[in-house]
Amino acid sequence: MKSFLVFFMVLSTLFLPMAQALVGLDGLESKLIEKNHELLSLKEQVEAKESLYSSAGSGFYPTINVAGGWVHNKTDDLAVAQKGSVAYIEGRYNIFNGLKDLSALNQKDADLKLAKIDLETKTLKLRLLLTETISDMIRLHRLQKILEEEFEITQTQ
After folding, report:
1. Cα 94 from Cα 104, distance rounded (Å)
2. Phi first, then psi: what are they for 68, rounded to 5°?
3. Burial class (CB in 10 A: 0-12, 13-18, 19+), 56
4. Alpha-carbon gap, residue 103 to 105, rounded angstroms
5. Are 105 and 56 in contact (CB under 8 A)?
């Protein structure tokens, strides 16, 4: 009888603070996702991979460089100096470079997809863990009610 009372007191002190979890799963899930440092880190990694992916496509863009200058030309006759200007325009368009840009873009795309999968996997694992914990708490809360009822019945006998 005394051990039953001690067991009941331990159960009640352990599970009274956890009764808030019985209210709902949505609020706890959003708090878990907002406060989990590992998830926040994975989200930052996904954003970084998205930036790297978008920058990897820049190899396909045409580039135009413009440069100019003023040049003094001298001839063999040192007494006569000739002045003139020189300017040029240079451009590049990626026609074929051994598929280097395409393979870099594909690698960045694979990295981005992998980072998104890691984020989704961690989110689902945390949701599963939260659901299992809440289920255990509900089961133990029901067990606590049964024990309380049995305790009351034994007290009246």
Report:
1. 14
2. -150, 170
3. buried
4. 5
5. yes
Judge whether 56 and 73 are in contact, CB under 8 Å. no
> DSSP 3-state assignment of 61?
coil
- Spatial separation of the C-alpha atoms in residues 131 and 26, rounded to whole Å: 10
Strands (E), 19-155: 63-74, 81-92
Q: What is the pLDDT of residue 137?
A: 87
Structure-token pair, residue 74: 């001298």
* Alpha helices (H) along the chain: 2-15, 25-35, 37-56, 100-156
**How confident is the model over 84-135, as pLDDT tens digits?**
666 666 666 666 676 788 888 999 999 999 999 999 999 999 989 988 988 8
Strand partners of residue 28: none
Q: Which residue in the block uniquely carries the two structure tokens 């089961």?
A: 139
For residues 143, 144, 149, 151, the Cα torsion angle rounded to the nearest 10 degrees is 120
Number of Cα atoms under 13 Å in the Cβ half of residue 30: 3
Spatial distance between the Cα atoms of 109 and 49, rounded to a whole number of angstroms: 8
* pTM assigned to the model: 0.59
